Amino acid sequence: MKRKTIITKIAKIAAIALFCANVAGVRAAEAEIAISYLPPVGQHGNAEGKIAWDGLTAANADQYAVIAMLHAVWDGGGGYYVKPYANNYLNAIDACGNFSILITTGGIDADVDEVIFYFVERTEISDADIVSPAAMSGKYMATATVYRSSWENSPPLTSNIPPGFVPAGTEITLSCAEGDVIRYTLDGSDPVTSLTAQIYGNSVFTVPADGALLVKATVGDLHSCTSVFSLTWLPQEPLNTPFWGLNVSLALNGEPFDYPLTEEATRERMAPIAPLTKWIRTFGTTSNGLEYVNQIAKESGLRTMIGVYITNDAANNDAEIEGLRKILQDGPAPDLIAVGNETNQWGISPETLASCIDAVRELVLNSGFVIPVGTVDIANISWNRSILEKLDFIGVNIYCGTWDNVSESQMLEATKQTFANTVSAFPSKLVLLTEAGTPYSGGSYSVDGGTQTPSENKAANYLCGFLDWVQADRVPSFYFEAYDEPVKSQNDGHPVEQYFGVMDGNLEIHSFYRDCITEHTPFVAVTGITGVPASAMAGTPLALTGNVVPENATCQTIAWSVESAGTAGATISDGNTLHSAAAGTVVVRATIAGGIAAATDYTQDFTITVSENSPPTGAAEQPAPDLKIFPNPFTDVVRITGVDAVGSGHALSLRVINAAGASVHTQILTKPDETIRLEHLPAGIYFFRVESDRQVTTVKAIKRNFE
């Protein structure tokens, strides 16, 4: 009898294993949770799902369980709790990984806005772990979050590709239930009221190489419609910088937040940022140089998310929106506009935020730009539905292991999971990770459930792991932050708040971050050099210059040499000044050390044609010590004195010759002291050649752009 029982049990196990192996998609190397059903909100019923994991067998299934943690907000409070009951929360899994959990039993369940499922090993869980997601950190093998918005109803509008960053040229199509009509706009206006709204047929939208594809749509019949959907796609570009994005505040060295930073100082502080990132994000539009940042960043080829800093002070909000108006007026257009930062946490009413979003939307529409408008807040908040409808994107700030009790070893994984949960909660929204980071100093501090202690090593390890993740998965993310901000620890601020910067007040990368940032700086090879002069004049020095392609190539320094002097007798002095004694053809070589790889130089040869530069008959090149040009360097206006030293009483002419040997300005000189306007010339080296019928004198001068 005993033998028969054992054989029967083995047979059952084998049968179960065979059945599980044939269930669609049941196995995975790492544990995953798939939710197949949730009861309608507020109705009695079970959540159903499945664990997919190679390690789950009929023999060990009873060692594992699923926890369902719900979140709700009610009058006078809100928080997390488990189902079906506080003393019975480890829900069984069968041998195939299936589970069923009673999650709606009445009371506050009708107000649930989030359900988090955790796949756990029973022996690893205690009652102290089930109070919040932070307490569960590091205790589970897999997790999945379902938000109310994604299970309440089937979405009436879908797209072939979810909103996000995709390759330029990607084609986007929309669909809805049979019999419904999609009404849409492409300029950011409300499809319900806008005169630009159209009825969707079989249109195909294309993601542009610059800017955004912003589709605002509503679904219904000809007499009624749903809420407005905002679907946003932006071009995904190669990530050839350590960071995808950096948060930028330029309040350095104790300067207050209302410090009037000059444009020149702003440019100086932005210069070290540009090589580190593709995107920058700001927190306002006025003071501390923020009024200049968008334009400066765009000149450096960066993408921008410009923040409009919202408070409960209407005068502040009006000033911020006016600051944005000036930014739009000056151009170029920002790529994204974020209205408010963590307004939910700071007690700013939904009505205030909504009115500011509306004002910014109207401003953008009137400017003629198509710019997605969104907002930024912390993770795991309850989003106001009227606000959500107004947003083209959502930014989420995640500080796992900084402002909560997540351990150092779990910081990055908790950040990844929280971000993934947010993305899954808003399938029709563009979601960005707008802040993540941790301090490197400031002393230990208390958080809910424990204590955190910053250190340089902890911060460096987190940054390296973060950059690994961002570069591998192309995560649209802004690290917090570019520079230390001492002002944040003033006026009763927490000591650690000033120590989040990648760089210090001297505009230098912190030493403990340097290796990490260097390791995560992709090498960009040189592919070409353009703009090298093709002609020269004998006897006239020529400055050799060129533009490295691509602009962000890792190595940029060009060394020049004469490969073939030909009959011109060419030589090079001062590194890049070509001298040719006679007419002929010169071949010069441009070399960029390490331009192709660490031990491989990039070289390119250029042929320069040297022509004779004969002065008028009878004239000879002679020095004229009294001939002066000043200021030198000059900007727009130059003064020439001592002209009569070249040929008093004789007809005099002036030719201004650029470094390529081309004549760019000529005129007759009639006085010994002449003032000449040359604002039309670009910056560079010029040769002022004064000629008479018996003498030629050349003076070199440099033109600089006005700063």
Q: Which characteristics define this entry?
A:
5 domains, five-stranded mixed β-sheet, 12 helices, 707 residues, eight-stranded parallel β-sheet, alpha+beta, Immunoglobulin-like, disordered N terminus, TIM Barrel
Summarize the structure.
By secondary structure, the protein is an alpha+beta fold. It is 19% helix and 33% strand.
How is this structure best described in words?
With 707 residues, this protein is of the alpha+beta class. It folds into five domains: 146 residues, Immunoglobulin-like; 71 residues, no CATH class; 277 residues, Glycosidases (TIM Barrel); 84 residues, Immunoglobulin-like; 84 residues, Sandwich (Immunoglobulin-like), CATH 2.60.40.1930. Helix content is 19%, strand content 33%. It contains twelve helices and 43 strands. An eight-stranded parallel β-sheet has the order 17-18-19-20-21-22-23-26. It has a five-stranded mixed β-sheet with strand order 9-16-15-12-13, with no helix packed on it. Strands 36-43-42-39-40 form a five-stranded mixed β-sheet, with no helix packed on it. Strand 19, helix 6 and strand 20 form a beta-alpha-beta unit. Helix 5 packs parallel to helix 6, helix 6 runs parallel beside helix 7 and helix 10 packs parallel to helix 11. The N terminus is likely disordered.
